[in-house]
Design a protein that fits this description.
By secondary structure, the chain is α/β, with parallel strands linked by helices. 51% of the residues lie in helices and 15% in strands. It contains 29 helices and 27 strands. Helix 14 runs antiparallel to helix 15. The longest helix is centred in the middle third of the chain and has 83 residues.
């Protein structure tokens, strides 16, 4: 005898063509955390069925597709399975969104889908068998359990797609009908891990429990964050409807232990079928794997389809659907049955608590399988959720009552009409018979009379019956209408209470008729409004708290900014004070060295002087950029000759030009006239451009071109576009152009040029030095004055920087209203001159420096807390023939001023105890001292304030003491 095969398929004969089945789940993406295991369960059932002989003697061949957690991919793969692979059935999907995405493909292709996950209900499709729970098999009993435990205030948290939103509509209607309270409702994008705001909302409203319909990776982030808040499950239990054993593994048992889940199956269910299933699943996929409800639903779905196919004897969808009605199967969760009407499954409901080992302990079950009710017909409060369902309610009752009354009326009229016609005929017969010519015997006449009386009696009986029926109908109608009026009255009363502000009022739902739907809708609406108002109140509190935090942060930022400003002022004062001494003493020593003939020391002293000035420039630049960024830089506007400014710049940069062997060419019309601007800031910008040109040019030529243009300088947009744009100038302006034949720049270098603390590139900084602040500050100064700096450059050929400023620069206060007159015609030259004169007059009203006329051998009072500054000033002025008295404090200076009544007072600003502004105010308040001219000498750039307070001169440290002495000498000569 030949050897017998141990394979049942081989033993039955040659292998027949396999039956293709589709498996469609998310194997990648956010939903893969749940769906991979469901796919594995489907394949386990397929393997077991194949080992047992297949279906109809044919093996099953699984065609697996990845939905990739994407709805379009699900729809595409479903069509591919049905049309290309021509599968007999598809087992798949998880989210309701994916189920609805593939539904058109199954309806058009006459396919069949076994859907293994609990869902929101309110759906019934002949192409789908729903092996997961309907709402009455999970959501409704889960909420009932919480309410029974005294958890009345429920917070709804879900992912933002179909299932959570529809499921929460059911929960809200249930809470409204059963006396619960909606604490809040939040949805997160599917897979989102940004749960902080949702948890903050939960903590703020303090619910009794949370109904969680989150799906995917969001659950991991939510439970981890919830545990970090310190809330314990005993204080705030979370009832999850999409978290099973597989998700518990991903979340981490320690993060979710103690919280609740509601399903139809747990791995811990104690049945022989489940022990066999769990053992097979772990043997196939690993001992560390777990089973859960969707896994079991996918597994039993394959077996239910197998039984239906074998009962139908075919894989034809229509025949399988017909054969599947009332099929039963001993599933791991217990006995299940396909409902013949809805194609859902009869299932036992179970509520469990997550344990620390990741398993779920069953704490409640329904006892017997629950009939699926996807449209919740058995719950009056849910009538509004499925308004298309027909019910014999108020409308049907009233229509039926109306029809009965009409029929009774027609019957009464008909009986009366027929009776009257017959009576008429009998009376006519009697009348004819009673005629003498008729010869009718009396006996016949008596019979006719009796028949007439009988007809009348019958008619009376019919009319009496109609009266009785109409009375009954009237009573029924009265009762029905009374009930309707009563229910409408209760509904009206509830509506009035809600309108008065009592959103806790609820309308009693007694049926699922039209009034019941209206009551349910009204209750849900009140609940939603209450939730929205609570949410608004919460947001208001959060906004107030946030506003308080922002106010505190603002105050802290302002305090920090003040501290920074104070620090910078103090730091620059502390640095500038010794630098002032270094620069001053080096200059005096140079003079004394020349007088003594010690010329060998002059160059060394000059180097010391130059180094001090360079360091002082760096410190000034840092302070300037800080003030610009803080918005505290101000303009000191005055009218000055453009030609004089250019001459000063040329004089200053001459030593730098000779250093690299450069030549300077200046093209400036001697009659170019004046400009009303900040001379100090414009001088600084020009010095920076010319010194940069001298630094980056070797044995080359530097050209300064200055000319006047007609047109207006439009508002600056502070962009980094450095290209010249002549269209921007449409009013009179002065153009300052600095060109060189130096190293030039590349486009990349230009893009970084005006950044603070940057030069063209690092190699430039290393080779040529500098802080990279000069151009940034220069451009900011020009923009403050209503102009800008533009650049044209070519690498290795040179650069041209162009400054355009309006002839009349307006202060920051004056610049804002100018936007309102931007469309006005350009001014004529006469109007411009008038405008300049008016602006100057206005400025002179604000600050009119006191005339400084000093007599010969004048007495000068010096008030400065720095001993070196006092010494330098005393030595310098004494050489010029002034009598100098000094004081180290403001209080001492005031006493000396009253005692000496000096011809002039030199006053420092930054002094301890009593600063220069306080001293100046005291001087101007004293009638004996008010006329003494005061010269302010300081590191601070507050010239406007000084002139407004009445100083004669406002000079910045470090001083050129020789020039200062010459200035005083000039005023002394004027005094003569």
């Amino acid at each position: 005898m030949g050897a017998r095969s141990s394979n049942p398929l081989e033993a039955a004969g040659p292998t027949r063509e396999p039956i293709k089945i589709g498996v469609l789940h998310s194997l990648t993406g956010t939903m893969s955390i749940s769906e991979i295991s469901v796919k594995d369960a489907t394949l386990l059932a397929v393997e077991e069925i194949n080992v047992a002989g297949g279906v109809l003697g044919r093996p099953l061949e699984a065609v697996i597709e990845d939905g990739a957690s994407d709805l379009q991919t699900f729809a595409q793969k479903a069509k591919q399975l049905l049309l290309e692979s021509q599968v007999a059935v598809v087992f798949g999907c998880w989210t309701s969104a994916s189920r609805k995405a593939v539904l058109p493909a199954f309806e058009q292709g006459s396919g069949l889908l076994f859907y293994p996950v609990q869902y929101e209900g309110l759906e019934q499709c002949p192409n789908i068998f729903y092996t997961g729970a309907a709402p009455n098999q999970q959501i409704v009993p889960g909420v009932n359990y919480l309410l029974a435990q005294g958890k009345r205030k429920i917070f709804l948290l879900g992912s933002d797609y179909i299932f959570p939103q529809t499921a929460n509509l059911i929960v809200k209607a249930q809470l409204a009908a059963l006396g619960g309270e909606l604490a809040g409702e939040v949805y997160l994008p599917l897979g989102s891990k940004e749960v902080g705001e949702a948890i903050a909302h939960i903590l703020a409203v303090k619910p009794d429990a949370i109904v969680n319909t989150l799906n995917g990776d969001s659950n991991v982030a939510f439970f981890q964050k919830l545990r970090e808040t310190g809330l314990k499950p005993e204080d705030l239990p979370v009832m999850s409807v999409s978290v099973a054993e597989e998700e518990v593994r991903a979340i981490g048992p320690s993060n979710i232990a103690g919280h609740l889940v509601v399903w139809n199956y747990f791995q811990t269910v104690d049945t022989p079928e489940n022990r066999k299933f769990v053992k097979a699943y772990k043997a196939r996929y690993g001992e560390n794997r777990v089973t859960d409800d969707p896994i079991e639903a996918a597994y039993l779905g394959v077996y239910l389809w197998k039984q239906a196919v074998e009962k139908a004897g075919s894989t034809d969808v229509v025949k399988v659907r017909a054969a599947a009605k009332n099929i039963e199967f001993a599933a791991p969760s217990g006995k299940v049955k396909i409902d013949a009407q809805t194609q859902h499954i009869w299932k036992t409901v179970r509520i469990g608590k997550v344990k620390s080992d990741g398993q779920i302990e069953e704490i409640w079950n329904s006892g017997i399988p629950v009939q699926p009710d996807p449209f919740l017909k058995g719950y009056p409060w849910a009538a509004a959720l499925a308004p298309r369902q027909i019910s014999l309610g108020t409308r049907a009752s009233l229509i039926g009552l109306f029809v009965i009354l009409v029929l009774i009326t027609w019957m009464a009229v008909g009986v009366g009409w027929i009776g009257s016609v017959e009576m008429k005929n009998y009376l006519l017969t009697i009348d004819a018979a009673s005629a003498p010519v008729a010869g009718v015997p009396e006996a016949a006449m008596a019979v006719l009379v009796q028949q007439t009386l009988a007809l009348v009696s019958r008619t009376q009986h019919w009319l009496l019956g109609a009266l009785v029926l109409s009375s009954i109908a009237g009573i029924v109608g009265f009762v029905s209408v009374s009930a309707i009026i009563r229910n409408l009255g209760l509904l009206r009363l509830t509506a009035e209470l809600m309108a008065s502000g009592d959103l806790t009022a609820r309308s009693h739902i007694v049926s699922n008729d039209a009034i019941g739907v209206l009551s349910s809708t009204l209750n849900t609406m009140a609940q939603q409004i209450s939730n929205l108002l609570n949410g608004l109140e919460l947001r208001q509190r959060q906004l107030e708290e946030r506003s308080g935090e922002l106010e505190i942060a603002k105050n802290a930022a302002e305090a920090a900014n003040r501290a920074k400003s104070t620090f910078l002022a103090n730091m620059t004062h502390e640095l500038r004070t010794p630098l002032n001494a270094i620069i001053g003493y080096s200059e005096l020593l140079q003079e004394e060295a020349l007088e003594l003939g010690e010329e060998e020391f002059v160059m060394d002293l000059a180097s010391i002087n130059m180094a001090g000035k360079q360091l002082l420039t760096i410190i000034s630049d840092i302070l300037d950029i800080s003030k610009i960024e803080a918005g505290k830089m101000t303009l000191f506007l005055e009218t000055f000759e453009v030609l004089n400014l250019i001459e000063q710049v040329v004089t200053t940069v001459q030593p730098m030009l000779g250093k690299n062997g450069n030549t300077l060419i200046v093209n400036c019309d001697r009659n170019i006239g004046t400009i009303y601007a900040d001379s100090g800031k414009l001088r600084q910008a020009l010095l920076n451009l010319v010194s940069n040109a001298a630094k980056f040019t070797d044995q080359g030529q530097i050209t300064i071109n200055v000319w006047k243009e007609e047109g207006e300088v439009l508002p600056i947009d502070n962009s980094e576009d450095l290209s010249a744009d002549p269209s921007r100038c449409q009013q009179p302006s002065i153009v300052f152009q600095v060109s060189d034949t130096g190293i030039g720049m590349t486009e990349d270098q230009v893009s970084r040029l005006f950044g603070a603390f940057t030069q063209a590139d690092d190699s430039t900084t290393r080779r040529y030095g500098g802080t990279g602040l000069g151009l940034t500050i220069s451009r900011k100064f020009c923009q403050m004055m209503g102009g800008d700096i533009t650049l044209e450059t070519e690498f290795d050929c040179g650069s041209t920087f162009t400054i355009r400023l309006p002839v009349v620069v307006k202060s920051q206060k004056e610049a804002s209203p100018d936007l309102e007159i931007a469309e006005m015609q350009p001014q004529s030259s006469d109007d411009l001159e008038t405008s300049v004169a008016a602006t100057e007059a206005k400025q002179k009203e604000v600050r009119s420096p006191q005339a400084l006329e000093l007599p010969n051998a004048a007495t000068v009072l010096l008030i400065d807390d720095d001993p070196d500054a006092r010494d330098l000033m005393t030595r310098c002025l004494s050489k010029q023939g002034f009598r100098v008295r000094s004081s180290a404090s403001g209080q001492g200076g005031l006493l000396l001023a009253k005692e000496l009544l000096p011809d002039a007072i030199i006053l420092d600003v930054m002094m301890p105890s009593m600063d220069g502004w306080a001293v100046l105010s005291a001087l101007k308040a004293d009638p004996d001292l008010v006329d003494i001219p005061v010269i302010m000498i300081t590191f601070l750039d507050d010239k406007n304030q000084g002139l407004e307070l009445g100083v004669a001169e406002y000079l910045r440290k470090p001083l050129d003491y020789k020039r200062f002495a010459a200035l005083l000498k000039k005023y002394q000569d004027v005094g003569k």
